[in-house]
Amino acid sequence: MAASQRFTGKAALITGAGHGIGRAVAERFALEGARVIVNDVNADRAAEVARAIGGEAFAADVSSKSQVDAMFDRAGAVDILVNNAGNIYAVRHFLDGDEAWWDHVLGVNLKGAFLCSHRAAQSMARRRSGVIINMSSGGATKAHRGNVAYDASKGGIEAMTRAMALDLAPYGVRVNAIVPGLIRTYEIPDDVAVERGKVVPLGWLGSPEEVAGPTVFLATDDARYITGTCLVVDGGVLVQQRSTPVDTFPLSRFPQL
Ligand SMILES: NC(=O)c1ccc[n+]([C@@H]2O[C@H](COP(=O)([O-])OP(=O)(O)OC[C@H]3O[C@@H](n4cnc5c(N)ncnc54)[C@H](O)[C@@H]3O)[C@@H](O)[C@H]2O)c1
C-alpha cells in the first residue's frame, strides 16, 4: 500500500508505543510522514520500536509528573498526542482490591493522560492547533468483571475527553477518544483467538492495525470538525445485547446466502 504523507512536518507523541495498539499507531504515523516520538515505560521496547520506524525513543512512566515533564522538555512541541499507555493486566475482584492497585491503575490510565495532555496542550493552545487522542475501552460504559479500577479509569478518560474538548476548542485543539474492542495484543494460540472472536458480531478479534487506522484518521484534516467524541472500533461488541437470543440464535441459524 502506498502511504500518503499526510503528517509530513508534524510531530506525534504516542505513549505506551512499545507494544500492541500504541506500536501500531506509531508505525502508521511514521508511514504517513510524521516525526514520531515513541514513549514507553519499558526502555527496551521504546528503543526497539523507534529503531524500526525511524522515530525517537523516550522511556518514561506517564504516571510520574517529573518523568512526563522531562520527556516533554526534551521532545519539544508536539502536534499530535496519543494517550495510549495503559495497564490491561491489573485484573482483580473488587473485594481483593486495595489502595495500591487503585492508585496504580488510575495513575497510569487516567492521571497519565492528564499529565501528558496538560503538557502537550500548553504549546498546542498557543499555536492554535493540535490533536489529542485518548485510548478508552468498552469498560468505560459496560463493565468488565474484575476491572473496577480499569473501568473507572476509562470512564474517567471519556469524561475527560469531553471536558478537555470543551476547554480546548476555542484554541483550535481537538480532543477525541478511541474505544477499542477485543484487540489481540497478547500471545494466544490461533484456535483460541478464533473461539474468542465468535462473541464479536463481525466475527474476529481486532488487530492493533485495525485500531491504528481510525486513530490516525482522528488526527487528519478530514476529522477537523470532530471533537469531544468517542469513536468505537470494536467490530460491533458494544451494540450487542448479551441476552438469551445471543446464545439461542447462533450464526448457524442465519440465512445462508
Ligand atoms: N487490547 C485490548 O483489547 C484493549 C481494549 C480496549 C482498550 N485498550 C487500551 O488500549 C491501550 C493499549 O492497550 P494494548 O492492548 O496495546 O496494551 P499492551 O500491554 O500491548 O501495550 C501497552 C504498552 O504500554 C506500556 N506502558 C504501561 N504502563 C506504562 C506507563 N506507566 N508509562 C508508559 N508506558 C506504559 C507497556 O510497557 C506496553 O508497552 C490501553 O490504554 C488499553 O487500556 C486495549
Account of the protein in words:
It is a single chain. 42% of the residues lie in helices and 14% in strands. By secondary structure, it is an alpha/beta fold. It has one domain: Rossmann fold. It has a seven-stranded parallel beta sheet, with helices on both faces. The chain binds nicotinamide-adenine-dinucleotide.
Give the key terms.
alpha/beta; binds nicotinamide-adenine-dinucleotide; globular; 257 residues; single chain; Rossmann fold; 42% helix; seven-stranded parallel sheet; 7 strands
How is the biggest beta sheet arranged?
A: 7 strands, parallel
Instruction: Name the bound molecules.
Output: nicotinamide-adenine-dinucleotide
Question: How many alpha or pi helices?
Answer: 8
Please state how the strands of the largest beta sheet are arranged side by side.
Answer: 3-2-1-4-5-6-7
CATH class type = Alpha Beta
CATH topology: Rossmann fold
CATH superfamily: NAD(P)-binding Rossmann-like Domain
- Overall average pLDDT: 96
Q: Helicity level, as a percent range? A: 40-55%
Can you tell me the number of structural domains? 1
Strand content: 5-15%
What is the second-level CATH architecture? 3-Layer(aba) Sandwich
- Please report the distance between the alpha carbons of the first and last residues: 31 Å
Report the uncertain regions. Answer: none
**Class per helix and strand makeup:** alpha/beta
| Overall shape | globular
Order of helices and strands: EHEHEHEHEHEHHEH
